[in-house]
Amino acid sequence: MTEVEVKKSQDSLQDRLAQVIDLLQRQRVVEDLTHRQEGQHNTLVESLVHRQNLVELQRKLDDLHPADIAYILEALPLDDRLTVWQLVRSDRDGDILLEVSDAVRQTLIADMDDHELLAAAKEMDADELADLAPELPRDVVHELMETLDAQQRERVRSALSYDEDQVGALMDFEMVTIREDVSLEVVLRYLRRLKELPGHTDKLFVVDSDGMLKGVLPIKRLLVNDPDKQVAEVMATDPVSFHPDDDAYDAAQAFERYDLVSAPVVDKSDRLIGRLTIDEMVDLIREESESEVLNMAGLREEEDIFASVWRSLRNRWAWLAINLITAFLASRVIGLFEGSIEKLVALAALMPIVAGIGGNSGNQTITMIVRAMALDQVSPGNTSRLMRKELAVSLINGLVWGGVIGVVAYLLYGSWSLGLVMTGAMTLNLLLAALMGVLIPMTLVRLGRDPAMGASVMITAVTDSGGFFIFLGLATIFLM
User: Fold this and answer.
1) How is the beta sheet containing 213-218 ordered, strand by strand?
2) Average pLDDT along the chain
3) How confident is the model at residue 42 (pLDDT cuts 50, 70, 90)?
4) CA 400 to chain centre
5) Which CATH superfamily groups domain 309-479?
6) pTM to 2 decimals?
7) Is domain 177-296 classified as CATH 3.10.580.10?
8) Does position 9 have pLDDT exceeding 60, yes or no?
9) How many Å apart are CA 274 and CA 44, to the nearest integer?
């Protein structure tokens, strides 16, 4: 899809969202007006208007892709969200539940009874059921497992046995397997007998009689080669494959590196047990990116923007409390130099500049380090070199931009000594920011935590307190 097509699609989706919101608002306005009027036909008029709006709204929803409906549901307050959710056709519930964010999914599931949940889940594949099962009521999961055949039940249990960040939790069980000792013509006839191919089928998996993976046959090779050739002559014998206990994010990086659409998943004996597909990898990368952004801001989990006040408070309070403590420490640092500030009021005006630039520089360093860690580009062998590089960058930036602000300080206050102190403080705080920007994520990793967890909050605390202490300390020594 080209950039223009993507923009048109997004514009269309925004238009649909606006139309849905307009219909919901129109319905509320008409209901309010009807309630205020007196007369025996008010109930009938209200019912007709209400039904007309809902029919139009349902017609618009029927034309939308499940992912687009999920987007609209996430963008609506809870009452409107549930109104729209009730209008969605029941045969589409499962697809939409898989598309919405975890936080919004909880609100939708809470609005469904057990019968509706079972009906939605019965239409899902084993890997999709495994995604949804942890959020369903236990009795619903038990009843659902009873309705599955032995193969489906075993597949769901297999997927649930792995952690959510492992390949086994993401693998798809729907795939096409063939033998290596048949001709391409036989393979083509076999494919024609299928009702449809599993999604994202860009290759067929070649296995022996014991299910061992022998290679893959890309669809493009199947189509362009002589139909009389054997599969063994055309297939690729060294495909990129994964094990179910591999790290899912490493697999996503491999998909990006090798431009994969699908890839086999094999057990320790090289027996084919499933496959990974590009749609799961794209979702994983998006979720990982969103998680890093939330973690750097000190948010514990994804949050429904229309969640209750109490739920949002529980998600945000912890790091705000830490931030309050660090802000108090920064204020105590300033309190140590009250005498210096009273003698030279210019210090109060200039010290936020030192702290602010240091925080920005530290966040840049942390962002680069966290990204490098995610791509496995940071190792014990290159840590010291990385540290020297970041310190060198900060030293140059400190001298250049510290010199600029030093000149500005001289022009404003007519003091060369104040300008030099400003330059020195800026340089030292940027060096501190670089040092902590490398050490904070590395320390979090050694403690077994996400390197992005609260990193932004911590680096800001360090550069604020450190910046104030460095600047006011130098001012006290050289200016008083």
Assistant:
1) 177-178, 203-207, 213-218
2) 85
3) low
4) 37
5) SLC41 divalent cation transporters, integral membrane domain (1.10.357.20)
6) 0.71
7) yes
8) no
9) 57
